[in-house]
Amino acid sequence: MNLLSKTLVSKASVVIPNRFMLTVVIAKRARQIKDGMRPMVNFDHENPPSPIDLALMEIIEGKIDVDVKSQYDSDEEYIQEIEQSLEIELEKQDVASQVKEQDDKKKESRKKSKSLAA
After folding, report:
1. Given this model, what pLDDT does residue 78 score?
2. Confidence of residue 72 (pLDDT cuts 50, 70, 90)
3. Contact at 8 Å (CB) between 40 and 58?
4. Residue-range domain boundaries for the chain
5. CB 26 within 8 A of CB 12
6. Helices 3-15 and 19-34 meet at what angle, rounded to 10?
7. pLDDT of residue 18
8. CA–CA separation, 99 vs 46, rounded Å?
9. Range with the lowest mean pLDDT among 36-45, 66-75, 93-102, 109-118?
């Protein structure tokens, strides 16, 4: 683990103090980023951070909200609850991102139409 990752893990553990839960959230979100989901934080595109570092940055900036309940019957139930909470949150953000992309494309199309008409 590099120095940046260690620093990010330290900061993220303040947001999600349970190390087990933090690990699950990081792994799940990093996998989603690696599979093509857009990161929800700004970063240097010339020197991009790893998907794990991006996931940590999202946690630190409060882009990922994890609902924590105090008691679970088993660790498996706990993990499932975390995964479901994260999935719902990310689906909401993905839909919002898709709507914004469509709006941007429509605006760009209108600009091109206006410039061709002129």
Report:
1. 73
2. low
3. yes
4. 3-117
5. yes
6. 120
7. 86
8. 27
9. 66-75
Q: Is the pLDDT of residue 51 over 60?
A: yes
59 class by beta-carbon count within 10 Å (0-12 exposed, 13-18 middle, 19+ buried) = buried
**DSSP letters spanning the chain:** --HHHHHHHHHHHHHS--HHHHHHHHHHHHHHHHTTPPPSS---TTSPPPHHHHHHHHHHTT-S-----S--SSHHHHHHHHHHHHHHHHHHHHHHHHHHHHHHHHHHHHHHHHHHH-
- Reading the block at residue 26, the tokens are 């990081």
pLDDT of 93 over the 60 cut: yes
For residue 80, what pLDDT is reported? 80
